[in-house]
Amino acid sequence: MDDILKSILSQKRLTKNEGLNILKDYSTLKIGQLATIAKEQRGIKDEVGFVVDTNPNYTNICDTECLFCAFWRKESHGDSYVLSLDKIVEIVKTSYHNGATTVLLQGGHNPSIELDYYCNLIKRIISEVPGIHLHAFSAPEIHSIAKYSNITTHELLKLFWGLGLRTIPGGGAEVLSNKVRKKISPLKISADEWINITREAHLIGFKTTATLMFGHAEEDEDILEHLVRIRQLQDETKGFLSFIPWTFKPENTFMERNISKEIGGDRYLRVLGLSRIFLDNFSHIQGSWFTQGFKVGGLSLYYGANDVGGTLLEENVLKSANNPYRASVEEIIHFIRSEGFVPVQRDTFYKTIKTY
User: In CATH, what number does 23-355 get?
Assistant: First the structure.
């Protein structure tokens, strides 16, 4: 403990083995204490950010068929869909008029959608709803769109940049361990491909987030491998805006047969706290009221989190796994205040819009 604490106080980088020791051996309370010290050492104030956003999904048809996902459907399935561009623009306009500043747009890997659909989608949202920021297409989507369009991921990213897209969500990372990915998403891009596509995006100029979805087939070593990979890429590109860990929701997935119950708040807080301690080059670590509820979401603010994500006016992926949590802007403001922190509405780039 003394060595770890000294490293944090002197802002000395922790090794993978030190991170592993924290996750394996330290009490949950000690991890929270160290995460709070790490946050203070990096000059992070008592402000807690949130964004007013919406997360529509343009299609649920997906040929990647991840075992952890309750959302995807085969094209032949009765409730499969592809939203028209008019419908997506309508959703975005409605969300904007309800106060959203960001639209997080993602969908399945659908081989039937042509490149023009994505290009026109970007152009129409940017031109018809200029007051909202388009945050779209995770690395696995970039890979699949490029593959179906017979172009490279770099060419696709340059095309999307030219059309005005500026940020990309960090979804599809799950756990950046190929051992784990072969178990839970064998048809999805590898950990190396996720890193390479994200690197390409950063070097073009895109800002992205990084995520971690845990509580399924991973072990402690896999979580540290994930954290090491994104810390190294952040050193190289400085392109990540934030880190967002969240827990696997087993209901209505193929993995529900073996994992019938979601992991508890203790494990969530341990991994979250480690993330703040270990990721010394990330300013923003996001706690999740949306997957954990307000009680654990509130505790996350004492485990290194300085952001609580979005209001998600519309969300379908975790809804498919019967995630029960919903909240208004007023409820999020109250929940942050009740924990003794200052609520700050921010934009996609983590710039302050309004301090409450």
Answer: 3.20.20.70
